[in-house]
Amino acid sequence: MSKKTLARVLLTIGGAGILVSALSFLPLGRACASEPGQAAIALVPDSASTQDGVGEKPATENTVTDKSIPDGARILMECYPDFVKGYKDGQILFTDGTSIVYDDKREKSFLQKLDDADMEDMFAFEYDRSSWTPGFMQDAGRSRCEPFFKKMYGASAAQVSKNLVSVSWFGESVKFTRVNHADDSLRAVAAELAKYPELKRYLKSSGTFNWRKVRGANRQSAHSYGMTIDIGVKYSDYWLWKNPGKKETDKITYANRMPHQIVEIFERHGFIWGGRWYHYDTMHFEFRPEILR
Ligand SMILES: [Zn+2]
Hints:
The chain has helices spanning 3-7, 71-79, 110-115, 146-153, 157-162, 182-193, 239-242, 260-268, and strands spanning 11-13, 16-18, 20-21, 41-42, 84-88, 91-94, 99-101, 164-169, 172-177, 205-207, 228-231, 271-273, 284-287. The chain has 2 domains: 8-102, no CATH class; 120-287, Muramoyl-pentapeptide Carboxypeptidase, domain 2, CATH 3.30.1380. It is built from 8 helices and 13 strands.
């Protein structure tokens, strides 16, 4: 049985069709960022739901189409199989039986996409790896649907702390979450970076877990969730330091001193880089495999 076939599992609950990711059977979680195109989804369209005792349609290639489910929902299932199990009726379904609406259908300004992001808004910006200069207002990954991240990593400092483990990081020990195997991904980054001693001076950590709001905003920082690390503060650039007094909607100038080799290694293991944001933060690396897809 092929991986793809194995991954297509039809589950029926209470006679109603439901869409389920079968990725918990597959070792794709950590490899999510490097295995595009693996549509590991089973779908029973709403029209196939049992009514008056009529049986479901078989899940053939004709009835199971990836078009039936938003790309972002499919990617979330693939990247977070421990939590996201399916999509139905506009809701992301979780393994704990709860759900979160995927798209609240509201038109949002740039700031609203950051401050009040739904699941869909997380994919509103382009994480463009074809250029080392971020596109105007492209802040892929800065939109975080807070209920989603709080559900996975913890909704308070105490809850997040329970999942933090020690990761050895170039002579230091840093705390990182074991949720979604983010700790293993950081260890894999460290192992690869260790092959390049000339990069070591950029790697000193200046912080991982810190339950706090984003500077100057009311949204929760990614550091709150324990899946984010800042490194090389001595060599780092931040949009607001370089453009004092500018607002998040203003035009700004770009700066970076972080070697691209470091960025590429982090990205290979599911981390996005703050230096790819128009509102750049070049010391910042955040475990967000769904944004790299
Ligand atoms: Zn940071």
